[in-house]
Structure formats: C-alpha cells, structure tokens
From TrEMBL:
Gene3D superfamilies, per database record: 3.40.630.30
Chain ranges of the N-acetyltransferase domain: 14-156
Sorted UniProt keywords: Acyltransferase, Transferase
Designated name of the protein: GNAT family N-acetyltransferase
Native source organism of the sequence: Streptomyces phaeochromogenes
Length: 156
C-alpha cells in the first residue's frame, strides 16, 4: 500500500466514490450529486491544499487532503473518502495515519479535522487514529460560519 501524490487523472474516479447525495454532503459539504471530476480536480488549484491517494496493487482505494494554514500554524485533514468496494477494511485509518505523518512532518504543531455530525463511521475511524473533540467553546466559534455544526477534532 502506497500513499502517493494525487493526480488530476484520478479526479473522475474519486468523484464517483460517494454513492448518494447524503454521502457527498458528509464528504465535502457539496449539494451536487454526483460530484463532477472537474470539481475534485479544481480542489488541487489551491496552493495550501495537498491531496494524496492511497493505492493498493496500483488501484486507488482512498483519497484525502491536507490543508496547510501557515498563519494559524496548523494543518487540517479534509475530504477523506474510501472507495466503496474497499470500505470496511481499515483503509480510512491507514490513510489518516499517512496524512497525519505528513502533517506532523510539516512542522505545524496542531492538526485538526471537521466531521459531519451524522458521519459515525468516520468519527470512529478518526478517534481510533488519535483524534479527540475540541472544547465546546472552540467548536461553537468555528461552527459559527459553517453550514452545519461539525464535530471538530484535534490530534493528541
């Protein structure tokens, strides 16, 4: 299993992984279903975003991003998804640990994630990878400008 830089050539593949509109909302907060490959490719144009693809036997099986914020001296793990046929095998946790290693290697001391409150499977995965909820006041402040009240997690 390898964690590789994301290539726009895989954008259409990754865009097909959410299997419902509800899953799209939990994955990336968008309302469109299905997600267009161009949407996924466009995410890479932000200089502060680094995307990775978890590959098994030359097949993409999971995708995730690191959002670097030099001003806040932190990294956010985002838009994590596992291919439908690869789910239930612990690959989400493998991906998160790989992303976390890159985030820690960047020198930023804080690593966060936000998770849709209905995404129980993701919450279990991230807690299993060492993430814990931020305090309620911080979560409230961060959620003030969000479309839903996300569960905000910080890596310990």
């Amino acid at each position: 299993m390898d964690l590789l830089p994301f290539s726009a050539a895989h954008a259409t593949t990754v865009a097909t992984w959410p299997v419902s509109a509800a899953e799209v909302a939990m994955w990336c907060g968008r309302l469109e279903f299905p997600v267009a490959g161009e949407t996924v490719a466009a995410w890479q144009r932000d200089a502060d975003v680094t995307a990775r693809l978890l590959v098994e036997d030359e097949r993409p099986v999971a995708y995730g991003e690191l959002w670097f914020d030099a001003e806040e001296d932190e990294v956010e793990l985002a838009r994590i998804i596992v291919a439908p046929e690869a789910r239930g095998r612990g690959l989400g946790r493998v991906l998160v640990r790989g992303l976390l290693g890159e985030a820690r290697g960047s020198g930023h001391p804080d690593v966060f994630m936000r998770v849709h409150p209905d995404n129980d499977r993701a919450l279990r995965c991230y807690r299993g990878a060492g993430f814990v909820p931020v305090g309620p006041e911080l979560a409230k402040a961060w959620n003030a400008v969000q479309p839903v009240d996300y569960v905000w997690l910080r890596h310990q």
